């Protein structure tokens, strides 16, 4: 890793570690930690820290930039299965069902990660304001802008991007500066992201400078997952052609609509069994599976265990699920 990038990420890691610390034993420190949580929310940041590896948990990621600052993480998005650390980052341009877990807790320092919420309105503003098309000015050695399906899902840092990101995290130490600096640094980060090879993936989530049909499709498939969806019906609901919907959806999410729906259904079925105690049959029916055997086969393929056995195992690990 470039020395300048490493220095910037070291700064971000030190700040994130401090603000992700467990609530202190005394009242005064506890109040300070609560304040940190409030400032993180204002900045659109979720800061996590765990001290041991975990199992795989279903998470629903809103549009965001995910960064591992210490340790390593496994993320599964559709058929894309990656183990990664601070040398890369992941852009989630629209709401996505992700399976993730910590595979390396980085010794005494623990696993530290930050997720920054991407505001589609800000992305649209920056794209509209750029004089150089997004994706043209990329880092040396990066792939040129092109079809998203040919791009690596893991993004490559540039020194300007790492610096801007470190300054964003650094605002946790300067809450009085947030009202003035946060709007500026958030736009700078979006600009720097659009100057990387990930620009096509970010832009795929927009139509012009507004939310895309992909966002509409993910909302329908999530909110009405139990319904019987086909590509024809989904395109008709969104008033676009099937070919346009398929291409844009695949570009932005890395999945087809059918893959997205299956992953969403499996994640919700797992949640119902773990949290509410549903049986496998109850959970499968609630999310739209018409065949119990089909559900069991897909579930085992996704999570490595039969539904009932997996639900029992996951209940014992729920305490760390929010750190992913």
Cα distance spanning the termini: 24 Å
Query: Stretches where pLDDT falls below 50 for ≥5 residues?
Result: 22-35, 136-149
The SSE order reads HHEEEEEEEEHEHHHEEHHHHHHH
User: What's the structural domain tally?
Assistant: 2
Mean pLDDT: 83
Q: What is the highest CATH level, the class of the largest domain?
A: Mainly Beta
Spatial sequence of strands, sheet with the most strands: 1-8-3-6-9
What is the name of the CATH architecture of the largest domain? Sandwich
Here the CATH topology of the largest domain equals Jelly Rolls
How much helix, percentage-wise, in residues? Answer: 40-55%
Number of strands: 11
Q: Radius of gyration, rounded? A: 20 Å
Binned strand content = 15-25%
Write down the overall geometry: globular
Number of helices: 13
Most strands sheet: 5 strands, antiparallel
Class based on secondary structure composition and strand pairing: alpha+beta
Pfam families: AraC_N (PF06719), HTH_18 (PF12833)
Keywords: Transcription, Transcription regulation
Organism: Curtobacterium subtropicum
Domain HTH araC/xylS-type: 215-313
Can you offer a commentary on this structure?
The protein has helices at 3-19, 27-42, 120-129, 159-170, 178-194, 199-203, 213-223, 231-238, 242-253, 257-276, 280-287, 292-303, 307-315; strands at residues 45-50, 57-61, 64-70, 72-77, 80-84, 88-92, 96-104, 111-117, 154-156, 206-207, 210-211. The strands form three sheets. Strands 1-8-3-6-9 form a five-stranded antiparallel β-sheet. Residues 22-35 and 136-149 have low confidence and may be disordered. It is globular, with a radius of gyration of 20 Å. It has two domains: 3-200, Jelly Rolls (Sandwich), CATH 2.60.120; 212-324, Orthogonal Bundle (Arc Repressor Mutant, subunit A), CATH 1.10.10. It has 13 helices and eleven strands. Helix 10 packs across helix 11. InterPro entries: Homeodomain-like_sf (IPR009057), HTH_AraC (IPR018060), Tscrpt_reg_HTH_AraC_N (IPR009594). Keywords: Transcription, Transcription regulation. Pfam families: AraC_N (PF06719), HTH_18 (PF12833). This is AraC family transcriptional regulator.
